[in-house]
Design brief:
The chain contains five helices and no strands. By secondary structure, the chain is mainly alpha-helical.
């Protein structure tokens, strides 16, 4: 019960600051929103199911799962490049 409450509070924190980070360039909005989605998906089975069925999320999830045998440094690099790619992809759609 405490873990669930902690994940909900942490997810809400990440969500609020992630939304603020979309408008303020100092905060990494996309990364915070991803962290919020991770927190909420572990607490809510319907949200987790929706994430797993989402076509865009499946792409990223398969890339993350394929990196399971990678060392920590390579995983950090993967997180960096996935975040950068999502930001660039988002900026392409805006133009």
């Amino acid at each position: 019960m405490l873990k669930r409450l902690l994940l909900i509070c942490l997810g809400t924190f990440f969500l609020v600051f992630g939304i603020i980070g979309l408008f303020i360039p100092v905060l990494p909005g996309i990364l915070l929103l991803i962290a919020a989605a991770a927190c909420f998906s572990s607490v809510s089975p319907p949200f987790n199911r929706w994430l797993r069925q989402n076509r865009r999320v499946q792409h990223w999830q398969s890339r993350w799962q394929n990196s399971a045998e990678l060392p920590l440094l390579k995983r950090v690099q993967l997180v960096f490049w996935l975040s950068a790619e999502s930001i660039v992809d988002r900026s392409k759609r805006v133009r």
